[in-house]
Write a structure and sequence with these properties.
Distance between the termini: 74 Å
Strand content: 25-35%
Number of strands: 29
Number of domains: 3
Oligomer: single chain
Structural class: alpha+beta
CATH architecture of the largest domain: 2-Layer Sandwich
CATH class of the largest domain: Alpha Beta
Largest sheet: 8 strands, mixed
Length: 765
């Protein structure tokens, strides 16, 4: 018997070899039944307009076209909004450039895409609103905003010795998942549909389609084996493609695949919310923030989508790791004629964190202090100053330990001194260094979503185990980690575990694979199912063998009771022959959490993840070009289920965060047209953008909460580690003015933005 695969073991991703060899099946790889049709979407070429005529005669006559559908063909709800209406499948009033108007099914993808171009569309053009400040001025909002207050910030600011006032903006971000939006629908008997969708939320995909068709949920079966990246872009944005594909299948009574071209994908789908902020801050000579007032404007696009929850999460993280005794924030959810902004890794938390980090950084520069020291002095404490602005006590604070340990291990102080010497000697090349902390809350802030189900079977003939959960594998290694948890719980080799596709007919009513909670929730649900099976086995053994104690140890393929010992395979076979159930469903709901959305108080998170990153950069002050030289990271993920996968998540998250803040830039024309909608115009980090030295270490810790394996998640939090790159760039820019002028720079810090900031400083010298 091979050694049991316990948790905390470094194990390759279950699909890793298939990913790199091309054997991993994605939706576009599935065998197409004979007669499969291919879809394409016709969309608006205006950002704000009323359609006066939609002439599709030439489209219908185009080569290979079998069917054309519009809003008139939808029997039920013509909307894919997850919480509120506002995202029509097909629209008559255009509200953003790229909004779907109709779709076709043809004999090939090429013929379908050619056909949609033949539509003759007449518009009554209206003036679009693209800028959030225009939205605020015109009072255009997708939802009512929120105002939160603690203490008396106005009084504290007025009485403070030092004062700063400024604005700061954060850009949007395209998800740029490797597998684009795609759906494949096969009609079944009784008007049922089998839906393959590249989605993070199979259950809601099922519900959205059922409402569109005016059918019961049990007629729609959604299956997801894996998706090629999501990052939040397939939490709600996949709904429209799955819906259109199913509608085409229903009308033609044939299998239909809808695979989006990359340009069209980017045009149609929502992005990360960009934020604009105005702030005032009062502080003492040590750098302690005494009062702060912030106005937040977020670009939400045409509809609410998930903007309410995302903006709430931004407010919940506006403190990051800092105790803010007196705080006022007013938040506006601005409607613009752009695609509906949506979930993105961090879910608003990173935007809130960046805003306070920028304030802290400016306070330090105003006082001519090391930003690291100003950050430390404002940290939450262990036994005092440990209550957040929403009333949650921080019980697991390790940020001071992580911060201090990283400062020492990265040689931060000496490097900072050496960098200053380098900058005084070099006229054009400048270096920057920054350390930033991360405190990120884990749980869905919509409380009822913190639940998960699972299904576990043991096959008696060979003792192999089948596991199904609501978790979607999108590259993050969830299947691998759940497999390790189940193997460990049964005390059998990992090779005996098979984690199967996520299917709505196996595990219903699931939450999205999001909020960094996928393994926490679904892993716990799987263990709950395992424990029920173990109870069945224990009850059987106790009764048959007349044992007084039914406690058992599952280890190395053996099951040991007091006075009796079995191999795992022999016992499950014996149990089956005695009609004992070897199958069970499992369920888990996150304990302790509660939140009053009206008062904005409670405990929205089960626990926090902590981390810190030190980044060193080099910039060319003549061109704005920049390079990450070295990154040192210390991150807390509790007792890791699989350290190798966690480390990969940390590295990937950091790079994605750095990309958002330095490279990736979305640009809209004044007429609402997105100009950065392809790999040629929108850049994500590549190999050359990786730091030359990349040191990632795990902070040894154990989750204080009762989470599977006492682990902590690494889904979203590492993205925030990328903040250190932005502030390192800002530090390098400050050196141009001998650190006497606070750089005025927004994110992303592209070469153009860097150069403009440098020129601004030169003008002030």
């Amino acid at each position: 018997m091979n050694k049991t695969s316990f948790v905390e073991e470094i194990r390759a991703h279950e699909s890793g070899a298939k990913h790199v060899s091309g054997y991993a099946n994605y939706i576009d790889d599935l065998i197409e039944p004979e007669g499969t049709l291919h879809g394409a979407i016709g969309y608006s070429k205006k950002a704000h307009a009323i359609i006066t005529n939609l002439n599709l005669k030439e489209v219908k006559k185009s080569e290979g076209v079998i069917s054309v559908v519009t809003s008139k063909d939808i029997p039920g709800r013509n909307d894919v909004g997850p919480v509120f209406d506002g995202d029509p499948i097909f629209t008559k009033k255009v509200e953003y450039f790229g909004q779907p108007l109709f779709a076709v099914a043809a004999r090939s993808t090429e013929l379908a895409r050619k056909a949609v171009l033949k539509a003759k569309i007449s518009y009554k053009v209206l003036k679009p609103v693209v800028d959030v400040k225009d939205s605020l001025r015109k009072k255009l909002f997708v939802l009512n905003g929120r105002k939160i207050k603690r203490g008396n910030p106005t009084k504290k600011i007025n009485n403070a010795k030092n004062y700063l006032k400024n604005s700061f903006s954060l850009g949007s971000q395209e998800h740029f998942y490797l597998e684009g939006q795609v759906a494949f629908v096969i009609p079944q008997e009784d008007n049922d549909f089998k839906v393959y969708s590249s989605t993070q939320h199979p259950s809601e995909t099922q519900q959205i389609i059922a409402k569109m068709l005016n059918q019961k949920n049990n007629t729609i079966n959604v299956e997801v084996r894996r998706i090629g990246g999501g990052f939040g872009g397939k939490e709600t944005q996949s709904f429209i493609f799955a819906s259109i594909c199913t509608l085409l299948s229903k009308k033609t009574k044939r299998p239909v695949k809808l695979r989006m071209d990359r340009d069209d994908d980017i045009l149609i789908t929502g992005k990360r919310h960009d934020f604009y902020s105005d702030y005032e801050v009062g502080f003492n000579d040590k750098g302690i923030i005494e009062g702060v007032k912030i106005k937040l404007l977020s670009r939400c696009g045409i509809s609410p989508d998930l903007s309410g929850a995302i903006n709430s999460r931004a407010l919940l993280h506006i403190d990051n790791a800092y105790y803010l005794s007196d705080l006022y924030v007013e938040n506006y959810l601005c409607k613009t004629n752009t695609s509906s902004s949506t979930a993105f890794r961090g879910f608003g938390g990173n935007q809130g964190m960046m805003i306070i980090e920028n304030i802290i950084d400016n306070v330090a520069k105003y006082l001519n202090k090391d930003p690291a020291e100003v950050r430390k002095i404002n940290f939450y404490k262990k036994n005092k100053k440990n209550i957040t602005h929403y009333g949650m006590r921080i019980e697991d604070n390790v940020i001071n330990e992580i911060f201090n340990k990283l400062i020492k291990s990265s040689n931060y102080k000496k490097r900072r001194s050496n960098i200053k010497k380098f900058n005084f000697k070099n006229k054009y090349l400048k270096k920057g260094l920054a350390i930033t902390p991360v405190k990120f809350g884990i749980s869905f802030t919509t409380t009822h979503l913190n639940q998960a189900g699972a299904l576990v079977h043991i096959y008696y003939a060979d003792g192999s185990v089948h596991v199904s959960t609501g978790a979607v594998e999108m590259g993050q290694g969830t299947y691998t980690k759940i497999g390790q948890l189940v193997a460990n719980a049964f005390g059998i080799n990992y090779s005996k575990i098979k984690v199967f596709s996520t299917r709505t007919d196996k595990v219903p009513n699931t939450s999205a694979s999001a909020a960094s909670s996928t393994t926490d929730l679904n892993g716990a649900a799987a263990i709950n199912a395992v424990n029920k099976i173990k109870e069945n086995l224990a009850s059987f053994v106790k009764k048959k063998y007349k044992l007084k104690d039914d406690k058992a140890i599952y280890k190395n393929g053996m099951i040991k009771f007091k006075g009796k010992k079995f191999s795992f395979v022999s016992l499950v076979k014996e149990a089956y022959l005695n009609r004992v159930s070897l199958s069970s469903s499992g369920f888990y709901s996150t304990p302790k959490i509660h939140f009053n959305n009206k008062s904005f108080t409670g405990r929205p998170f089960l626990y926090f993840c902590y981390g810190a990153a030190v980044s060193e950069v080099l910039i060319d002050s003549l061109t704005g070009e920049n390079k990450i030289i070295q990154v040192d990271i210390l991150h807390d993920h509790g007792r890791a289920i699989n350290p190798a996968i966690e480390k990969g998540q940390i590295e990937g998250g950091f790079v994605q965060g750095a990309g958002w803040l330095t490279i990736e830039e979305l640009k809209w024309k004044l007429n609402g047209e997105l100009t950065t909608h392809s790999p040629s115009t929108y850049k994500i980090p590549a190999v050359n953008d990786m730091p030359k030295k990349f040191n990632v270490k795990i902070f040894k810790n154990t989750n204080k909460e009762n989470v599977v394996n006492k682990s902590k998640t690494t889904g979203e939090p590492p993205l925030m580690l990328g903040m250190s790159v932005f502030f390192a760039i800002k530090d390098a820019i400050a050196s141009v003015g001998n650190y006497k002028i606070i750089p005025n720079i927004n994110a992303p810090a592209t070469p153009e933005t860097i150069l403009l900031s440098i020129n601004d400083i030169k003008e002030k010298i």
